[in-house]
Automatic annotation (TrEMBL):
The keyword Lyase applies. This is Pectate lyase. Keywords: Lyase, Signal. InterPro entries: AmbAllergen, Pectin_lyas_fold, Pectin_lyase_fold/virulence, PEL. The keyword DNA-binding does not apply. SUPFAM superfamilies: Pectin lyase-like. One of its GO terms (molecular function) is pectate lyase activity. It comes from Heracleum sosnowskyi.
Length: 140
């Protein structure tokens, strides 16, 4: 899911199993389609920097699972300093992203190395994402 530079590859996520969780470092979450999460779409622990750009977050029906973000195994006093931001994300069905830390300060220079496409393009970008339906001995 992450490439060598810590960038999450473009995907279409139906997060009904194990939600995303990151630890330490810088993470660009760019142009993904998050749907069907049961707890949260992106979780983190151990002070990661998360830069969410141009993603589409479609919250589930449950009123208890609308938050996109989850700070795992930490208290509010600690995570308030973690640098998590959302820029150009499309938040649907009551989804919300809890920002924290320095926001758009210089600490995001390293994490902002990608140019995200508009979140309105996520459906088009991810329409072919997922497992290929290939059969052995046939072309995909």
């Amino acid at each position: 899911m992450l490439d060598a530079s810590g960038v999450l590859k473009v995907s279409d996520f139906a997060l009904s199993a194990l939600p995303q969780q990151v630890r330490h470092g810088y993470f660009n979450v760019v142009n993904n389609d998050y749907t069907h999460w049961e707890m949260y779409a992106i979780g983190g622990s151990a002070d990661p920097t998360i830069n969410s750009q141009g993603n589409r977050y479609l919250a589930p029906v449950s009123p208890f699972a609308k938050e996109v973000t989850k700070r795992v195994d930490t208290n509010t006093g600690q995570w308030r300093a973690w640098n998590w931001r959302s820029e150009g994300d499309l938040l649907l069905n009551g989804a919300y992203f809890t920002r924290s830390g320095a926001g758009a300060s210089a600490s995001y220079a390293r994490a902002s190395s990608l140019d995200a496409m508009s979140s309105s393009m996520v459906g088009t970008i991810t329409s072919g994402a997922g497992v290929l339906g290939c059969c052995r001995g046939s072309q995909c």
